[in-house]
Amino acid sequence: MLSRARNVVAIMYQSYFNMLPTKGKELNEMTREEARRKIIFALDVDKLADVAVWAERLSGKVGMFKVGKELFTTAGPAAVEAVKQHGGEVFLDLKYHDIPNTVAQAMLAAGQHGVKLANLHALGGAEMMEKASQAVRKEFSGTARPQLLAVTILTSSTQETLQAVGIDRPVEEMVVRLARLAKASGMDGVVASPLEIEAIRSACGPDFLIVTPGVRPSFAAVDDQKRIMTPAEAVKAGADYLVIGRPIAKAADPVQAAELIVDEIVAGA
What we know:
Order of helices and strands: HHHEHEHHEHEHEHHEHEHEHH
Strand order of the largest sheet: 1-2-3-4-5-6-7-8
CATH topology: TIM Barrel
Oligomer: single chain
Number of helices: 14
Distance between the termini: 47 Å
Largest sheet: 8 strands, parallel, barrel
């Protein structure tokens, strides 16, 4: 009788124990919506009409749209407005690098367009980043303030690329050095290769944003990126946002491609 009672108690305890982790698992597991919000679709187009097509097609399927130099030079702020008209948020990827006052004014203008993310080059130095941060934080508050990112080393760059312009330090060392400088200068985060995510996270802490291009899902070609990871690998390493363009844009079904990337992120989380 005693043995049977012990067995019953053991079964009841195990049943109760099995129920306890459920809440924890729900907290740790990434939902499809959380995964979707990590995707920034690169609008690598040069016509305003194409912006509207992509924004309508992918709004709700990705978390944000990247407006870069080619598109902004061709279409100007109308490209940002076209995305917003379809309910999308914008990463204004213009990589400002100029004298401090000019960059600060450019960042203020970006904020006036209601973008969520805007960036500059960390190689522009501490004063440039500090003035931009101070100007934007003075002008905007709360969710109206764009989050400011510093580009570290472009994902197309290699050690040979750096050496050719007189930088003899290893790529990862330079990336971490620039990330630390960006944080100390008031930046909210950095744009960096996925291969440097863990080093940046270790150096700059859990709340520092990391936006990473150089992400190629398992079904896509590498193209011209040199330092890459899959979406699942990048998120697992600690990336907050993934910039992805051609693997979605060149797919036979772009919406399905976006969903496949969400699948990869969730599966790897």
